[in-house]
C-alpha cells in the first residue's frame, strides 16, 4: 500500500493550485488547475468538482488521475497517480462540501473526486528524475 510521507503531505499543503491530468478512453490528455484539494489519511486525495467538464467526462470513462506537487523552497517535486471515484452524497462528500462552501458559497460543489493513490514518482531534475518512490 502507498503511504505518503509527512514531508510529501507538507508539500501538498503548500500547493495552492495543482495541475490535474486526466485522459479520455482514446488517450486524449486534459490538464486543468485545481484549488479545492485535500489529503485524507496516507493514500487518499479529495478534489472538489466545482466546474469540471472534460475532466469529469474523462474520469467517467477512464478513472485514472495524475497530479504533481512542487515546492520551490524545499525543492521537492513529486508526481502522484491514482484512481478516481466520484461521490455525490455521503459523509465524505458532505464534509468536504461544507469545507469548500465555508470558503465561498458560490462554489457549486457538484461532486467529490476521491483519488486513491497508486504510485508516486520523483519529478525533480537530476539522477532520480522519473523514479518511482512509492
Ligand atoms: C486557480 C484555479 C483553481 C481552480 N480550482 C478548481 C477546483 O478546485 N475544482 C474545480 O472543479 N474546478 C476548478 N477550477 C476550474 C478548472 O480548472 C476547469 O476550468 C474546469 O475543470 C473545466 O475544465 P475541463 O473541461 O478541462 O474539466 C479552477 C480554475 C482555476 C484557474
Any chance you could write out the topology, listing elements then pairs?
Blueprint: H1 6-14, E1 18-23, E2 29-34, E3 37-40, E4 44-49, H2 54-61, E5 64-71, E6 76-87, H3 91-103, E7 111-122
Antiparallel strand pairs: 1-2, 1-5, 3-4, 4-7, 5-6, 6-7
The chain binds flavin mononucleotide.
Please explain how this structure is put together.
With 134 residues, the protein is α+β, with helices and mostly antiparallel strands. It has a single domain, classed as Pnp Oxidase, Chain A (Roll). Helices cover 22% and strands 40% of the residues. A 7-stranded antiparallel beta sheet has the order 2-1-5-6-7-4-3. A hairpin with a 5-residue loop joins strand 1 and strand 2. The radius of gyration is 15 Å and the shape is globular. The mean pLDDT is 97. The site of flavin mononucleotide has 15 residues, from strand 2, strand 4 and helix 2.
List keywords for this structure.
134 residues; alpha+beta; Pnp Oxidase, Chain A; 7-stranded antiparallel β-sheet; 3 helices; binds flavin mononucleotide
- The CATH topology name reads Pnp Oxidase, Chain A
Structural class: alpha+beta
CATH architecture: Roll
Distance between the termini: 9 Å
Rg, nearest Å: 15 Å
The SSE string, one letter per element, is: HEEEEHEEHE
Concise account of the structure shown:
This protein is an alpha+beta fold and 134 residues long. It is 22% helix and 40% strand.
Amino acid at each position: 500500500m502507498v503511504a505518503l510521507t509527512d514531508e510529501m503531505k507538507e508539500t501538498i499543503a503548500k500547493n495552492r493550485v495543482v495541475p490535474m491530468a486526466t485522459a479520455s478512453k482514446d488517450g486524449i490528455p486534459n490538464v486543468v488547475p485545481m484549488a479545492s484539494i485535500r489529503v485524507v489519511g496516507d493514500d487518499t486525495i479529495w478534489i472538489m468538482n466545482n466546474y469540471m467538464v472534460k475532466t469529469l467526462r474523462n474520469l467517467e470513462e477512464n478513472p485514472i488521475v495524475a497530479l504533481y506537487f512542487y515546492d520551490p523552497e524545499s525543492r521537492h517535486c513529486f508526481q502522484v497517480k491514482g484512481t478516481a471515484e466520484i461521490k455525490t452524497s455521503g459523509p465524505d462528500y458532505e464534509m468536504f462540501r461544507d469545507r469548500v462552501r465555508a470558503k465561498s458559497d458560490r462554489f457549486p460543489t457538484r461532486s467529490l473526486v476521491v483519488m486513491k493513490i497508486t504510485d508516486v514518482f520523483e519529478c525533480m531534475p537530476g539522477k532520480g528524475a522519473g523514479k518511482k518512490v512509492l
